[in-house]
Amino acid sequence: MYLMTAVFSKVQDVLENYKTSVYEKDVEKFLSMYAPEMRIYDCWGNWEVKDLSLWKNNVAEWFNGLNEEGVLLKVDFHDLVVEEDISLAFVYCTVTFTARLAEGGEQLRQMSNRFTYGLKKVNESWFIAHEHSSLPISVETGKGIYNIE
């Protein structure tokens, strides 16, 4: 069963939904682009998520934290490559998250992650079936590198 309330007829529609649902902190809108049997390798928290209800908990926690902090999060895709055929698509890109105060717009922080999305088309709509985010690791410090250099 798909949570779809909108049809994502183009891969770009999924990416636009990602951007707007994060900015709006709309959990259901965000989840609407994921296939129920999705698999996510995320930089934060869990090594792997393969259950939509667990992903919903992660997303709700993320958005609630932004609300508590009074932050709006802008998402930008860079170096975007989309490869698709009739029923499968891969997206490779860098995603930059910029946190600004909702009141006044002051930028608080910014970070970039490398993302790969695997999408599949079901009933003429695209869904994210696989998502992998990563950060390069500094050899000197062993810590993630959060910004594009």
UniProtKB/TrEMBL annotation:
Q: Which organism is it from?
A: Pradoshia eiseniae
Q: Which SUPFAM superfamilies match?
A: NTF2-like
Domain SnoaL-like span(s) in chain numbering: 11-137
The protein in question is named SnoaL-like domain-containing protein
